[in-house]
Each structure stands twice: as C-alpha cells, then as structure tokens.
C-alpha cells in the first residue's frame, strides 16, 4: 500500500471580478509514493508544489480527484497523528519559547503527557536547539526557526513527513544539516516527501522525483532512470576561438575564457565536432563525457509534456 | 456522512436554534425593560453634557431621543397611564441636542400641556420648551402658533395667546390665518368657533400623526359640546311650552322640536335624562367634552331641583 | 470537553497575555479611572456618580476594543501568517480550533476585566473610604460588561474567519455601536411600514442587543437590578455568542487557507 497516493487530484481557481476565468493551480495529478521512500517534488516557483502540499494537508480543498495518505482519507484524524508537516517559511507564535511551542504541538498531536517533556528535549537536542530552548521565538534567527520547524514536524514520531522547501533561506551549513536529517529520517524508515527547486539536493537525497511545471506533472521516476534517458553530453576543452561558430552550429554551448573555450554538446555530435576543430586548426585540450544531471532532464522536460509511458509505478 | 458534513449540519442547526432563542429572549428583555431606556433620561446629568459626549453626532442622538419620547408617550397612553413624567426630560434632551427639531416643540406643546390622561398636565413646562424653541428658531412662526395654543387652551390666558399669535403673524412667511387668529383672540376668546378654528388648523397642518389624532378628538368634543348645548336648549323650550320636561326623544320629535333621534359623532343616540339633561352614551369616546357628561348639571341652569 | 479545545484555549490565553498591546490598553483604562477621581473633585456631591459612570464606561469601552483587537489580531494573524498550517495538519478539527480560540479569548477578557475592576474598586474605596451595600450592584454591572465582551469576541472571531483584520475590526465596532441602540432600532421598526418595517425588524433582531447589558447609569444611582434581567441577559449573551460561533465554524469549515 503506497504511503501517499493521489487520483486525479485537481485544484482550480476562479479569478476576475466580472468575467470569471478558471486558472489551474494543479492539473489532475496521479502519483504514488511508496513507504520508506524519499520522494522529491520538483519544479520552478509557482509550479503548484505548495498547492499540492496544502491539498494533502487539508488546508485547501480539491476541485477534483482525491488522495490518500497511509490508505486513509485526508480528513482522518488518525492519519494526521501519523504525519508531520513543515511549511515553507513557517511562522510560529512569536511569544512562545521553542520548548513551549513544541510542548503545545506535542499536546495537539496527542503525545501522552508523561512522554511529552522527554520528547521535546530529545527533539531540541536532535535539531541542535537545546541552548535556545528558553528564548522567545521572535528573537530567533531564520535558521533556528527552521530547525524548530523541523522539530515540530517529527516530534510525534510520524510515519510520513512532508517538507515544503526545507532548505530555503538557509546557509550552506544549515542546508547540510537538513540534508543529513532527511537522510536520518530515511534510515529510520520514514517516508519523506519534500518539495524543492534546488535540483542538486534532490539528486543527492531522493529515491524518486516528480517534476511539476505550471500545475502539470512533466515526469516522474527514479533519478538514475531519468538522467539516463537524457541525452548524454560531452565536454570539449580547446584553444581556438574561430572554431566556436562551427561548433555552435552543431548545437554546442560554448564559453570562452581568454583563449580557452569550453564547449558542451550532445555525444552524438562528438565526431563532427572533432572534425570541425581539426579543420579550423584548433588545439584540443580534453574530451570528457559529462554525466547527465537532473538539471538537464529538468530543463528538457519543462518544454515537453509527459509521455504515456511515464505513469505511476 | 463525512466528518465535515456532520460538523456542517450540527453547526447550522445550532446556529438557527441559537438565533431563534436569542430573538425570543430579546423580546423578553424588551418586555422587562419597557420604559427603562426612557428612564435613563432621568439620569442624564444635563443635556449639555450629553451633547459633549455625543462627539458631534448630536443630530443622530437628538433623533434617537425624539423617537424615544414619541414611543414613551405612546406606551404610557396605551396603558391609560396618568403619568408622563419622563416626557419633559426626553423632549428637553432632544431639543437641546438639536434645537431645530421643530416637530418636538409642537409635540410638547400639545402633549406636555394637556391634562392627564391625554397629556402630562404641565403647561408651564410646555411653555418653557416652546419658548426655548422660539429663541433658537426666530424665523419659525409655527412655534408662536404652538405657544398660542398652550396659552389659550390650557392656561386660558387669552391675552398671552393673542400676543403669541401676533408675534407669529409678524414673522415673514407666516400663514395668513395667524393674523386672523390674533384678531379672534381679542374679540371671540372662549368661543366655540375660535376653538374649532384653532383645532382644525392644527389638524390640517401638523406633521405628527399623534397630534392629528388628538386634534380630531378635540374637534369631535367641540361638536358634542355644541350638540348637547342645542339639545338642552330645545328641551328647555319644550318645558316652557308644555310645562314639563320631555320624557323621551319620541315626545320631542312628535312635538316638532326634532326630526329624529339625535346621535353623537359616533352615531350613538344621546340619552335624555330627567330635567332635560342630555348626556352621551359612552363618555370614554369623547375625552375632551365639557358638556354631556353624566353627573354634571346641565349648562346654564341653577340647582333648584334635586335628582 | 474535547482535549484539543483545552490546549488551543490555554495557548491562546498565553499568547494574548504576552502581547504588549493588552497591557497598554489596560493601562489606559486604569488611567481613565484615575482621571474620573479627579473629575469628581470638580462636581461635589456627585463624585461617586461620576466615578462609577466614567469608570465603568472606560472598562466597557476599552474592554470592547481589547476584545476586538485581540480577537481579530489572534485569528486573522494566524490566517495571514500561516501558523495555522502546522496546527491544522495535526489531529485538531477545524471547529475545535475555533471553539478553543474563543475559550482562550473569553478567558483572557475575564482576567482583563478582573484587573480593571480591581483598579476601579480601589478608586472607589479611595473616594468613599468604605463600601456600601449598594456597591454590590456594581459587580452585576461588571458581570454584564463581561457578557458584552463575550458577544463581541464571538463576533470578532466570526468576522476574522472570512475578512481581513482591518475590515473585521471595523465591522465589529460598527455592530457594537448599532447594538447599543438596538432597542431604539426595534422601536423604529415597530413604527414603520412596508419594506422598511421588514428590514428594520430583521436588522433589529440580528444585531446584538447591548442596550440591556448596559446598566451603568442605573447602578451609578444605586438602583438594584432585577434577577430576571440577570437571567435573561445571561441566556441571551450565551445564545448569541453560540450563534456567532457556529457561524464562524461554518465559514471556517469550508475556507481554503491562503
């Protein structure tokens, strides 16, 4: 049984005062996430990632389709005690201290009284906030707030955790910490669903990703699978600026630094490129295969629709 | 049913029930508090303070107090009360807040001055009120008219009434009959005609429904007074001719004094009592009559006979 | 009582108590009570009356302002600032949240009123040097003021479920003013005809009835208050607040959060 599944989940809005127009926030989405997976939900800003999360959390209501988490309806109270959610740029009650806030959330999540204090301490330690536990939240920095946010998402031992742009606004150290945390969660056997527009993070952490653009699903699958489907590329380093014109005609991206040019182009054009260089009398420095990244796949897919083969597993 | 559905239904039901219950309770509260809001008028230390406290919205507050005054009077009148002690404070507050509330002065002129149960029976308070109105509204000739009314009908001070009508007639824009009334005062004070003139002019020109009703009552009373007077004279005439008092209307009809059984303005026949006294059947129908009331001696007759 | 409601209520109280706005308003109310003492010096003979009138009016007005601003602030703020995201993703039902918020706010106002009342009674003691039997009715007047707060808070909560903070505050204040003249509105309705009468009557009953909850001038003159009035006022306030709360629950149940 999938941990998260959606069936044609859809959200559209009517805008405009006189002539109402329908704007799609999320086009019918059908996707499934298996238990124990780290699932990345990717897309540019405004793609509909947060909309999807809000639908799953029951903060907004779908205009079509349905979804289940852990096999239960979205309004099911039992389900809600088994999930955790960290919204983007969260805001908390500014007059509470970190420990008071977590205590409150533990109460609401139904953590029994005796356990609460222990859990809260544990969580604070886990996210490195034990020192600032007694400080009012309005005095904390963004990074610290983010850590408190993560703590509240996991303190009740949820089976599925949802993060919306968990790295946003963090410095590299903070981002590293979050990545480690997500890895830990995976090791603990939890399912993690997180949205981001930073592809390198997704590449490093995720078992599978889905790509969303303008409310529509454009691709879903394991990272290696997706990158494998992308066109392989090669990187050619050479001296000889005149050759740029020919190589660009072959579809290469060229960047010149002084005399040295770096050209990246499809592997299939490799031989033609080398011929061009020879003709122009350019001096070859190196030829290296470039591993396809998720970014390539991403950019490729953004321009295309999803094809029928890429249906949920 | 989904959880959301249950919540919706329950909340909607409780909402409807609570609103209904609240409305019912409000009716209870209004019942408990009839007159309580008006009573608060007694606790206002002075209208001037209220004026300051109203933060400039004196017009609205004046309207509210005016509405309360009318409501108060209506309620008391309906209860056949003989007391209208809050009418003066309420009208005073209303006219202090808005000195140009002409209709309030007219209301006070009639209903503060008249004797209970048709009024508060305090002509002095009425005069004070209207004089205040005159000071604040020198070009409102109608206020002199109201003043004249009080002087004439409640204080029986014909000279003062004449003076009031005179002053009023000199205000530019005054209705021509003001001068006529001033003249009437000096020559025909106390006459039925004068009274009729005054009350019908009020009936035709007032804006207040309560006053119009009141004027109509006065006019009817005048009619009764006149009729009773005439009937008693006829009875006396009968007595002179025949040597005895008429025993019934039929006798007088037979004797050619009347064409038929005389009826009052409500179409009920007058009653002919021994010794030629005429009374109305239902005195309560005519609050202002001075003739035709049972238990009084007929007009113009000395008390020579008993019973 | 459902446990989440108690938790939300307790947290709401805590949040309100730590907000500095609250203290400023209480301070001003007490300042006014102090000023009343001074005004009294000017009008000899009615010092007590002036103190009670001004003092209780200050408590009432400031309390309503606090009720509106805290009520709207706390709920609208939550909607705007998304604290709700992490609350509603937990096993808390939306209606439980509303009821809990209301409970916490109402409790805040009771504590508030208590503090202001202490200041008021201290001023009274200062003036009169001892308490009289008639002063007992002052407690009833204060109880009625608390009932006013309960109704206003419920209304503020209702408005903040669908309206922006500023608009909600304006509407709540407007209803407070209109509600003070509710009896006059009903009198006006009774005297009018046709469509005006229909609308006026409808409005007169939907609008909160604050007229009967204001007994300040009566108690200033030492007038007793009928037990039946206390009973019906209590019943009314609770019913009206319940209606407003249900309205809030209904709106919130279907609201898509930004």
In short:
Chain A is α/β, with parallel strands linked by helices and 313 residues long.
Folded structure, characterized:
The complex is a heterotrimer of chains A (313), B (307) and C (258). With 313 residues, chain A is α/β, with parallel strands linked by helices. Chain A folds into two domains: 4-228, 3-Layer(aba) Sandwich (Rossmann fold); 231-290, ACT-like. Chain A, domain 2 (Alpha-Beta Plaits, 2-Layer Sandwich), CATH 3.30.70. Chain A has eleven helices and 13 strands. In chain A, the strands form three sheets. In chain A, strands 5-6-7-3-8-9 form a six-stranded mixed beta sheet, with helices on both faces. In chain A, a hairpin with a 2-residue loop joins strand 11 (253-257) and strand 12 (260-266). In chain A, helix 3 (98-108) crosses helix 4 and helix 4 (113-126) crosses helix 5 (142-154). Chain A is globular. The two termini of chain A are 12 Å apart. The relative contact order of chain A is 0.14. Mean pLDDT of chain A is 85; it is low at 305-313. With 307 residues, chain B is mostly helical. Chain B folds into two domains: 36-215, Tetratricopeptide repeat domain (Serine Threonine Protein Phosphatase 5, Tetratricopeptide repeat); 227-285, no CATH class. Chain B has helices at residues 3-32, 36-43, 47-53, 58-78, 87-97, 102-111, 123-136, 141-154, 158-169, 177-188, 192-205, 209-242, 249-254, and strands at 271-273, 277-279. In chain B, strands 1-2 form a two-stranded antiparallel sheet. Chain C is mainly alpha-helical. Chain C has one domain. Chain C has helices at 3-17, 20-42, 47-81, 83-88, 94-128, 136-160, 165-180, 182-191, 194-206, 216-220, 227-254. In chain C, helix 3 runs parallel beside helix 6 (136-160), helix 5 (94-128) runs antiparallel to helix 11 (227-254) and helix 6 (136-160) crosses helix 7 (165-180). Chain C starts with a helix and ends with a helix. Classes of the chains: A alpha/beta (313), B mainly alpha (307), C mainly alpha (258). The B-C interface holds B 3-4, 7-8, 11-12, 14-15, 18-19, 21-23, 25-26, 28-30, 32-33, 36-37, 40, 43-45, 64, 67-68, 70-71 and C 46, 49, 93-95, 181-184, 186-188, 191, 205-206, 209, 211-212, 217-218, 220-221, 226, 228-229, 232-233, 235-236, 239-240, 242-243, 246-247, 249-250, 253-254.
């Amino acid at each position: 049984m999938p941990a998260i599944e959606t069936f044609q989940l859809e959200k559209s809005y009517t805008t405009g005062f006189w002539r109402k127009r329908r704007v799609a926030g999320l086009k019918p989405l059908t996707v499934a996430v298996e238990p124990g997976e780290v699932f990345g939900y990717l897309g540019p800003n405004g793609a509909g990632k947060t909309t999807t999360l809000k639908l799953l959390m029951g903060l907004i209501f779908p205009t079509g389709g349905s979804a289940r988490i852990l096999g239960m309806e979205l309004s099911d109270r039992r389900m809600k005690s088994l999930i955790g959610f960290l919204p983007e740029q969260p805001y908390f009650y500014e007059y509470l201290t970190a420990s008071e806030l977590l205590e409150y959330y533990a109460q609401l999540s139904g953590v029994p009284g005796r356990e609460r204090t222990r859990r809260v301490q544990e969580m604070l330690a886990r996210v490195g906030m034990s020192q600032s536990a007694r400080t009012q939240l309005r005095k904390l920095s963004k990074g610290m707030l983010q850590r408190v946010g993560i703590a509240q998402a996991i303190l009740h031992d949820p089976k599925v955790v949802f993060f919306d742009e968990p790295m946003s606004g963090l410095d590299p150290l903070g981002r590293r910490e979050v990545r480690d945390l997500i890895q830990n969660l995976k090791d603990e056997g939890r399912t993690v669903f997180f949205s981001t527009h930073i592809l390198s993070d997704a590449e490093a952490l995720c078992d599978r990703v889905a790509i969303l653009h303008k409310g529509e699903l454009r691709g879903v699958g394991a990272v290696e699978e997706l990158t494998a489907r992308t066109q392989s590329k090669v990187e050619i380093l050479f001296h000889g600026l005149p050759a740029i014109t020919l190589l660009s005609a072959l579809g290469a991206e060229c960047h010149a630094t002084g005399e040295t040019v770096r050209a990246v182009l499809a592997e299939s054009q490799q031989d033609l490129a080398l011929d061009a260089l020879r003709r122009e009398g350019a001096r070859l420095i190196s030829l290296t295969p470039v591993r396809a990244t998720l970014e390539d796949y991403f950019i490729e897919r953004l321009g295309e629709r999803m094809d029928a083969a890429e249906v949920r597993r | 049913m989904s959880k959301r559905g249950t919540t919706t239904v329950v909340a909607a039901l409780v909402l409807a029930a609570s609103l209904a219950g609240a409305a019912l309770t409000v009716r209870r509260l209004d019942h408990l508090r009839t007159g309580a809001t008006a009573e608060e008028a007694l606790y206002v230390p002075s209208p001037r303070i209220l004026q300051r406290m109203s933060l400039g919205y004196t017009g609205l507050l004046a309207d509210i107090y005016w509405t309360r005054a009318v409501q108060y009077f209506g309620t008391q009148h309906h209860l056949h009360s003989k007391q209208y002690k809050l009418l003066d404070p309420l009208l005073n507050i209303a006219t202090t807040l808005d000195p140009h509330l002409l209709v309030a002065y007219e209301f006070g002129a009639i209903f503060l001055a008249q004797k209970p149960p048709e009024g508060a029976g305090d002509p002095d308070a009425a005069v004070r009120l209207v004089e205040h109105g005159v000071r604040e509204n020198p070009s409102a000739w109608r206020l002199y008219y109201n003043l004249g009314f009080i002087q004439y009908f409640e204080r029986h001070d014909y000279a003062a009434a004449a003076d009031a009508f005179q002053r009023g007639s000199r205000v530019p824009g005054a209705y021509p009959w003001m001068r006529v009334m001033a003249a009437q005062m000096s020559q025909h004070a106390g006459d039925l005609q004068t009274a009729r003139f005054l009350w019908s002019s009020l009936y035709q020109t007032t804006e207040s429904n309560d006053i119009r009703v009141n004027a109509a009552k006065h006019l009817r009373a005048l009619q009764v007074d006149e009729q009773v007077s005439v009937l008693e004279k006829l009875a006396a005439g009968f007595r002179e001719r025949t040597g005895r008092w008429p025993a019934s209307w039929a006798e007088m009809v037979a004797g050619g004094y009347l064409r038929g059984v005389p009826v009052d303005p409500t179409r009920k026949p007058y009653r002919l009592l021994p010794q030629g006294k005429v009374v109305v059947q239902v005195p309560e129908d005519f609050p202002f009559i001075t003739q035709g009331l049972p238990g009084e001696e007929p007009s113009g007759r000395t008390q020579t006979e008993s019973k | 009582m459902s446990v989440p409601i108690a938790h939300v209520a307790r947290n709401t109280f805590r949040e309100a108590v730590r907000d500095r706005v609250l203290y400023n308003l209480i301070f001003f109310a007490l300042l006014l009570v102090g000023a009343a003492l001074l005004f009294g010096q000017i009008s000899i003979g009615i010092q007590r009356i002036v103190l009670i009138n001004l003092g209780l009016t200050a408590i009432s007005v400031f309390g309503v302002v606090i009720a509106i601003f805290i009520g709207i602030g706390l709920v609208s703020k939550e909607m705007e600032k998304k604290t709700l995201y992490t609350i509603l993703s937990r096993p808390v039902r939306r209606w439980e949240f509303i009821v809990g918020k209301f409970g916490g706010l109402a409790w805040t106002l009771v504590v508030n009123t208590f503090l202001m009342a202490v200041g008021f009674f201290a001023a009274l003691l200062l003036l009169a040097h001892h308490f009289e039997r008639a002063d007992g009715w002052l407690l009833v007047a204060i109880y009625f003021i608390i009932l006013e707060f309960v109704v206003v808070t419920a209304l503020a909560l209702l408005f903040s479920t669908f309206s922006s903070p500023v608009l909600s505050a304006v509407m709540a204040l407007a209803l407070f003013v209109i509600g003070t003249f509710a009896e006059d509105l009903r009198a006006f309705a009774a005297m009018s005809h046709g469509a005006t009468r229909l609308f006026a009557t409808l409005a007169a009953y939907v609008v909160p009835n604050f007229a009967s909850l204001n007994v300040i001038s009566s108690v200033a003159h030492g007038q007793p208050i009928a037990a039946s009035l206390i009973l019906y006022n209590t019943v009314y306030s609770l019913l009206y607040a319940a209606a407003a709360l249900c309205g809030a629950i209904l709106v919130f149940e279907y609201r898509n959060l930004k």
